[in-house]
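Audit log entry. Action: structure prediction of a protein-small molecule complex. Ligand: 2-oxoglutaric acid. The ligand was supplied as SMILES and no pocket hint was given, so placement is left entirely to the predictor. Protonation state taken as written. Sequence taken verbatim from the request; no trimming, no tag removal. Recorded inputs:
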Amino acid sequence: MNSLFEFIPFTENPLYENIIADLTKKQYSIVDGFFTKDEVEALRKSLSQKYEEDIFKKSAIGNRTNEVIRAKVRGDIILWIDEDKANSAEVLFFNKINDLKDYLNRTCFLGINQKEFHYAIYPEGTFYKRHLDTFQNDDRRKLSFVCYLNEESWKPENGGELVLYLEHGEETIYPFPGKVVIFESQVLEHEVKPVNTPRLSITGWLKTR
Ligand SMILES: O=C(O)CCC(=O)C(=O)O
Ligand SMILES: [Fe+2]
């Protein structure tokens, strides 16, 4: 019997191929301008609206951790995004994510069949200490995905760099708008350095069941 794949037209996507090559070689990939200026602006507006509605929550670092311990580890506030109730900006966001996910599944057989994404705001003075994204008892997380929604005027001095701890050295990444960072959740420890200006993003995970 023929494989089902043979009947689905397949066009190679150079951007996705680059991401795959990066992930294979160094377990992470950085894409400037993964989201356009307009997309970032729409998503930032959506984030601000929800922030005004006061529905963001303090992030967690596991079950039963107390507030003092939590604040020493991470200070961001988050809001999970429900794809079924996505607004127009979020629909565009998920279209791109799903396209990438389908491509990865077709070319790398990653078996990603779940995902979860949340908005994150790092208020002034907050950070996220060095960690592995699977520490929250979630070994189904395969790829971490961070997308920055900061203003166009974002400057390196604002802080909030993402530092990836690699086998040999570190990679420091500035959270410029539209940039996306993808890395292997089970392998790469990372940290968000203290911010001195509110820092906006969407973070998520592509998961296996
Ligand atoms: O915002 C970032 O650059 C990384 C966030 C992060 O590490 C996380 O939410 O687990
Ligand atoms: Fe993380």
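Audit: result stored. DSSP finds four helices and eleven strands in the chain. The radius of gyration is 17 Å.
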